[in-house]
Automatic annotation (TrEMBL):
It comes from the Bacteria. This is Dolichol kinase. InterPro entries: Dgk1-like. Keywords: Membrane, Transmembrane, Transmembrane helix. The chain crosses the membrane at residues 12-30, 42-62, 68-92, 104-120, 166-186, 192-213, 225-253, 273-297, 343-359, 379-398, 410-434, 449-468. It comes from Rubrivirga litoralis.
């Protein structure tokens, strides 16, 4: 896949050419915006396309990293100047800021381009594919959603449309499939399946991103995903696509039994796919069971939520989903990076947030319950949902004679159950006693950090249980 391209211009001349082209594009879009009364969002997307086209030329303009690093730094300085200087913000900066919504997209864009060049500049196809998605799939989604969006869904910052997401997926598919098919030795079946998987995942990432961070997440995530999928054969790629679509469909169909709505459903499917693709079926069990059962195991709270017949009572978004999943995902990545079986601490990292959810819900449904009653009820329910399935996996490994199975399964079972009750009960007790300092006296982000810190510390107790096993 590596294809070093000789520079067509000296480095300084190339930098000057890129800066001049970007400046002309910005001025041209601004003039059209003012004279033709172009909507702010349309002007923003037009500049999005223009900058992406310019960025696509970088591997042919430069054969070293430093010019692109310089361009990235200059672009960030220019963006910050437009943000800070009122004359610039009200002039050419109107292309970026008249849309009136807070966004980090203008900062993320040059960072993404620079990072892509550093990791993939010597392979123009791998460099171009993420930029094509960034430059064309996102504007296509915005255009279709604005003109033809009839089926909205909620996001953390408003709404998007299903029509726009379908448009994003279609354009993303072409942006991956065509370059792989025409400019690489990748076979047609593999190219089709890679494009299909990337299109679905990129659409999910775009849907759950906030404040313009999709300008960073989509291109860098696409590069990492394509690089990994290129190592798979057609059969494995097809399996990934089938599982991914099945997870999205299951999350959507089961949403009536949850308090997760809108883009949060996509977030749940994304977390489930990460668990399955990086860990395997056993690692999918805790998040899948938590999503399926967290609203069912608290009947009184379920009734108070109006489930399953009140779709308006689904306040939890992608932020909430990622907050619940954050520590578990870190254990998953650690297990993958270190090649160590950390399934049990990972399960605890799902059980502890499930205990939090129980306390949150039952404090409203059963206000007479004290901290001890809340902690006990949350502990055994959370252990049953998140830990017991992992014990079933352990015993299957024992019966199958897997070398990694614990040599003393009974002792391991006792240790896992005991630590599971302690970790989940501890999480519930801490929240029941200190809910106001954690959730009321802090911002939403700070509250999520406190919860994640508690989950991280309690799930680490799983390492002690592994030592006993």
């Amino acid at each position: 896949m590596t294809d070093l391209t000789p520079a067509v211009l000296p480095p300084l001349a190339g930098i000057a050419a890129v800066l001049a082209t970007l400046a002309l594009a910005l001025v041209a879009v601004r003039r059209v915006q003012v004279r033709r009364r172009l909507p702010a969002e349309a002007a923003r997307r037009a500049l999005h396309v223009a900058v992406s086209v310019v960025a696509l030329a970088l591997p042919w303009l430069f054969d070293a990293d430093w010019p692109v690093v310089v361009l990235t730094a200059l672009a960030l300085v220019a963006v910050l100047a437009v943000r800070a200087v009122p004359a610039l913000r009200g002039g050419v900066g109107g292309v970026l800021h008249e849309a009136g919504r807070p966004s980090l997209g203008d900062l993320c864009f040059p960072i993404a381009v620079g990072a892509l060049y550093l990791v993939a500049g010597d392979s123009p196809v791998l460099y171009a594919i993420p930029l094509l998605l960034l430059g064309f799939a996102d504007p296509a989604a915005a255009l279709v959603g604005r003109r033809h969006g009839l089926a909205p869904y909620a996001t953390d910052e408003g709404t998007k449309s299903r029509e726009g997401s379908v448009a994003f997926a279609f354009v993303a598919f072409l942006c991956v499939h065509v370059p792989l098919l025409l400019f690489t030795p990748v076979g047609r079946p593999e190219s089709l399946w890679i494009a299909a998987v990337v299109a679905v995942l990129a659409t999910i990432v775009e849907a759950v991103s906030w404040r313009g961070l999709d300008n960073l997440f989509v291109p860098l995530g696409t590069y990492a995903l394509v690089l990994r999928l290129l190592t798979f054969d057609a059969t494995l790629l097809a399996a990934h696509f089938v599982v991914l679509v099945a997870l999205v469909g299951a999350a959507a169909m089961l949403r009536s039994e949850t308090t997760v709505g809108g883009a949060g459903v996509f977030g749940a499917a994304l977390v489930a796919y990460l668990a399955w693709s990086l860990g395997g079926t056993a690692w999918l069990l805790p998040p899948a069971l938590v999503y399926l059962l967290y609203a069912r195991i608290w009947p009184a709270a379920r009734e108070a939520d109006g489930l399953p017949h009140d779709p308006a009572r689904r306040p939890h978004t992608a932020h909430n989903v990622f907050s619940v999943a954050s520590v578990g995902v870190l254990w998953l990545l650690a297990a993958r990076a270190l090649d160590v079986d950390l399934l049990y601490p990972y399960a605890l990292a799902w059980g502890a947030p499930l205990a939090f959810l129980g306390v949150d819900r039952m404090r409203e449904a059963r206000p007479a319950w004290g901290p001890a009653a809340l902690a006990w009820r949350a502990a055994w329910r959370s252990t049953l949902v998140a830990v017991v399935p992992v014990l079933a996996v352990v015993w299957l490994r024992v019966l199958a004679g897997v070398p990694t199975a614990p040599p003393a399964p009974l002792a391991a079972t006792a240790a896992f159950l005991a630590v599971g009750l302690v970790a989940t009960g501890g999480a519930a007790l801490v929240l029941a006693v200190y809910k106001e300092p954690i959730d009321v006296w802090t911002s939403a982000f700070e509250g999520r950090l406190w919860r994640a810190a508690i989950v991280a510390g309690l799930s680490a107790l799983g390492l002690a249980a592994l030592a006993v096993a």
